[in-house]
């Protein structure tokens, strides 16, 4: 389940990385964005009414799920762009 969500997050990341001003998109930044987004999204799919349910690939193709993931990925990119953890270029 996590892998499917992670896959979807990475897809969105690759599509959106050039659209966020100041976001560098290196491996470290991508890692941070994916981790941050996963932490945001995973609870939504594992709590409440959905507890124990399995997220299917089809479900992640839904417009609503895609829009939700996109928003979370964009937000994570803005946060990483504002405070990147990668080493500054010398
Ligand atoms: Zn970076």
Structure in words:
This protein is an all-alpha fold and 90 residues long. The chain has one domain (2-82). Helix content is 67%, strand content 0%. The protein contains four helices and no strands. Helix 2 crosses helix 4. The chain is elongated and about 40 Å long. The relative contact order is 0.23. Bound molecules: zinc ion. The site of zinc ion has 6 residues, from helix 2.
Helix content: 55-70%
- End-to-end distance: 40 Å
Whole-number total of structural domains: 1
| Radius of gyration, taken over Cα atoms and rounded to an integer in Å | 14 Å
Largest sheet: none
- What is the total tally of β strands? 0
Instruction: List segments where confidence is low: pLDDT < 50 over at least 5 consecutive residues.
Output: none
Q: What sort of overall outline do the alpha carbons produce when their principal axes are compared?
A: elongated
Give a quick set of tags describing it.
single chain, mainly alpha, binds zinc ion
In short:
With 90 residues, the chain is an all-alpha fold.
SSE topology sketch:
Layout: H1 2-16, H2 27-46, H3 57-61, H4 63-82
Zinc ion binds next to helix 2.
